[in-house]
Specification:
Layout (H helix, E strand, L loop, with lengths): L1 H4 L8 H22 L7 H6 L4 H16 L11 H4 L20 H12 L9 H9 L4 H7 L6 H25 L5 H17 L2 E3 L6 H21 L22 E5 L2 H26 L13 E4 L7 H4 L7 E4 L9 H11 L10 H11 L5 E7 L8 H10 L3 E10 L11 E8 L6 E5 L6 E5 L28 E2 L10 E3 H10 L7 E5 L1 H6 L3 E4 L13 H15 L6 H4 L19 E5 L1 E2 L9 E3 L4 E2 L3 E5 L3 H7 L2 H10 L1 E3 L2 E3 L2 H5 L9 H25 L3 H4 L9 H17 L8 H16 L4
Parallel strand pairs: 1-2, 1-4, 2-3, 4-5, 6-8, 12-17
Antiparallel strand pairs: 5-7, 6-7, 8-9, 10-18, 11-13, 12-13, 14-16, 14-18, 15-20, 19-20
């Protein structure tokens, strides 16, 4: 596509990009059709091969028009090469599209490498979408949150939503004992009618992978049915109007905001239909006529958050909502407005993808429709859980099945690198609640009594931020925020320069640490001067200049802001640490990279000033550290804490203040304290002997390098879980459920 793109007069314009995408889809369909037997063998190759490169553009335009012309509209004097092509229909070749001049290199690559070198008849329709995803402008893809989906991930959604049940129902009919042939055939016919009546709706369908894979699976079921119904009837010659095939593309509906993706989705479904027809030929031996294309899926070009879904498909006719709504980090102005449309004043607390959950719930209220969506796992974590899920669940919505957090993979080059969940939900409170957990690596399925909004087997309880701890003995407070434009903060190099130039000025500086400095072992310092010591700054021009610069900057800020309010005290932080920083304290970062088994935290006793990117616990004990660094606290954090991109976010009100500590006696407390100290001692040893930072020690997938540290952690984990009355090393899902039970009892929310 890069060679073709370069031929457009303005290759970066929206018009040219659209034309290129349509041209590529058409070319792939032609390559597929000639290899799949829809056209005479090598018809496209033979048509274009003798054409000089400077005439190839005109030849393609002529071919597109001919393929779109019905039998009565065709030129009776067309060349034999053109007459070899049947009428395609379906709108694939209907629109006038800009075709650039082709070079000899492009023609040679298209014919000799792409056409001759590949059997396009076997192209996977789901891969088809991924191939074209990579041709989209990366900015378009990123802004739209478009992530195309592998068949494996599609089946994680469609299997428990409907396919497992359909397969089981068919197998039950086929394997039922003591049933006569006539009754079995009647049951098969009834089941055949059932699958041919199902309606599927993807309100963010992208390249159509979910719809396409669903269609493929229904056709496989249909082939199984038809092969049994026609068994022992010999060669079954059929006229098209008597075809036993009932599953139709008209059962599939979608909304997609990108016009190119709409084109890809429609074409992928056609390819799936044509491939399924080829498989069916061996069963029906009939005249399942492929061309012209007769029907297509109903994929609407539009914005799913502003389009009335009921106009696309009546909710009473919809059986299943499926899909992978967009994962968008930074929202555009329009996307902010769309989210506000759905969530009002709560919009800022809920991810963009949450709009699809609310829209689906609203659409299927009062029906038997069921939905399942892929989403970033953020919709089941942090502050957004209650505002997103509580109104829906209070209205009767239930989660029928779920896949807890797992890594996402796509078919497309440079696919998404995110952690996702799959949530199946409806207003139908029936059947087993299936729950998959990936904490051990491989998927482990269990049957839950209830799946709550955190995807935990526990009643519907919502963890709300609190100003004071429910259970913890020691309070956690926030660090200091300079709001200084960098004037009050010194890097390690700047500190060294000041030491060289004015060593006595260092008495006014303190070590200053945020999350990054703490975890990565970086040096940073800040000006820290009491009001009574201000006269001393006169002897240190570098410090005085910085104070003046900070005051000037603050005075230029918005007059209603906090920085402006601190313009008259430019030597001090705008927000001072909320606790005693001169006594020892436990520091807890507000953010850490995803994938670490343990959330790094540690003690300071040297007067280090904690920044606003960390929390700290004045007068914390080693026992506090021990419980908070244990697996129990880590899984609570992972469950109820938030996310910034893929990083784990700690919030004192939501995590620390809601975490229920174990009830311990003096002996148990002493033992847990000893094991916590063992972790600290091993970390200190690694720093002294190997110079490694916490970032290195806790880097994912390198635990084998630090056996002593992780052995100490394991012993601590077992002791803490024992203090909860649990078996050491129990499944993470069971540990989380126990912590939710304790929380529910503490807040009286278990009824």
């Amino acid at each position: 596509s890069d060679l073709l793109r370069a031929q457009y007069l303005d290759p970066d314009s929206e018009e040219s990009m659209h034309a290129l995408h349509v041209l590529c889809v058409r070319l792939v369909f032609l390559l597929f059709a000639e290899d799949a037997g829809l056209f005479p063998k090598n018809a496209f190759y033979r048509y274009l091969k003798p054409v000089p490169a400077d005439r190839a553009r005109a030849a393609l335009k002529e071919l597109f028009a001919y393929l779109n012309a019905g039998p009565q509209e065709r030129d009776p004097y067309a060349s034999d090469a053109l007459k070899a092509f049947p009428y395609v229909n379906g709108g694939l070749f209907a629109a006038e599209v800009e075709v650039p001049q082709l070079t000899q290199e492009i023609v040679d690559v298209l014919l000799d490498e792409v056409s001759e070198g590949t059997d396009w008849s076997q192209i996977s329709p789901t891969v088809f979408g991924g191939v074209f995803e990579s041709t989209l402008n990366p900015e378009t893809r990123r802004a739209g949150g478009m992530h195309y989906t592998s068949p494996e991930n599609i089946h994680r959604l469609i299997d428990p939503l409907f396919l497992d049940d359909l397969k089981a129902e068919l197998d039950g009919i086929l394997s039922a004992e003591g049933v006569g042939d006539r009754k079995r055939r009647n049951e098969l016919s009834r089941f055949h009618d059932k699958i041919a009546s199902l309606r599927f709706f993807d309100p963010a369908c992208g390249s159509g992978n979910f719809l396409t894979e669903t269609y493929i699976q229904l056709r496989k079921l249909e082939n199984k049915i038809v092969s049994v119904l026609l068994h022992d009837q010999g060669v079954f010659e059929l006229q098209e109007q008597h075809s036993p095939l009932k599953v139709s593309l008209q059962q599939f509906h979608g909304i997609e905001i990108n016009d190119f993706a709409v084109n890809v989705a429609t074409t992928a479904l056609w390819i799936a239909e044509l491939q399924a027809n080829a498989e069916a030929e061996s069963i029906v031996y009939g005249m399942v006529k492929d061309l012209p294309l007769k029907d297509s899926a109903h994929v609407v070009l539009g914005n799913a958050l502003t389009t009335d879904w009921t106009e696309v498909l009546d909710p009473t006719e919809c059986d299943y909502i499926i899909g992978n709504p967009p994962f968008v980090g930074k929202l555009s102005t329009e996307q902010h407005a769309e989210r506000a449309l759905w969530f009002g004043k709560e919009a800022g607390r809920i991810d963009y993808v949450g709009c699809w959950f609310k829209a689906a719930a609203q659409y299927m209220k009062g029906t038997k429709c069921r939905a399942a969506l892929v989403s970033t796992n953020s919709v089941t974590q942090g502050v957004q859980v209650a505002p997103l899920w509580k109104p829906l669940m209070d209205d009767g919505l239930v989660i029928n099945f779920a896949h807890r957090s797992f890594k996402w993979t796509t078919e497309a080059k440079g696919g998404a690198n995110v952690t996702v969940v799959i949530i199946g939900f409806s207003y139908c409170d029936d059947g087993p609640r299936r729950l998959w957990d990936y904490s051990a690596g491989e998927a482990v399925e269990s049957v839950a009594v209830n799946i709550n909004a955190y995807l935990v087997d526990y009643p519907n309880v919502f963890v709300e931020a609190r100003s004071k701890p429910l259970s913890a003995e020691t309070a956690m407070v926030y660090g200091g925020k300079p709001a200084d434009h960098g004037y009050l903060v010194f890097s390690g190099d700047e500190y060294d320069e000041l030491m060289e130039a004015d060593p006595s000025a260092l008495r006014y500086l303190r070590p200053f640490t945020g999350a990054s400095e703490f975890i990565k072992g970086k040096r940073r310092y800040c000006l820290w001067v009491a009001e009574e010591d201000l006269p001393g700054l006169a002897a240190h021009p570098v410090l005085l200049a910085r104070v003046h610069a900070c005051g000037q900057w603050r005075s230029e800020q918005v007059v209603t802001g906090a920085a402006y309010a601190g313009r008259d005290v430019p030597w001090r932080f705008q927000q001072m640490p909320a606790g005693d920083v001169d006594a020892p304290y436990l520091l807890v970062p507000s953010l850490t990279s995803a994938g670490r088994r343990y959330f790094p935290m540690g003690f300071f006793a040297d007067g280090t000033i904690p920044s606003n990117l960390v929390y700290f616990m004045p007068a914390a004990t080693v026992y506090d550290f021990a419980v908070m660094t244990s697996r129990a606290h880590n899984v609570w954090l992972e469950q109820v804490g938030g996310r910034l991109k893929t990083d784990t976010r700690y919030a004192s009100g939501l995590v620390h203040n809601t975490f229920i500590w174990p009830t311990v006696d003096a002996t148990m407390r002493e033992r847990i304290t000893e094991l916590g100290q063992a972790v600290l001692d091993e970390r200190d040893r690694l720093v002294r002997q190997h110079g490694v930072t916490l970032e290195v020690m806790y880097k994912p997938k390198t635990e084998m390098l630090y056996p002593g540290l992780f052995k100490a952690h394991k012993a601590l984990d077992d002791a803490v879980e024992g203090a909860y009355g649990l078996e050491p090393g129990l499944d993470e899902a069971d540990l989380v459920a126990h912590l939710f039970e304790l929380y529910g009892k503490a807040v009286g929310a278990t009824s």
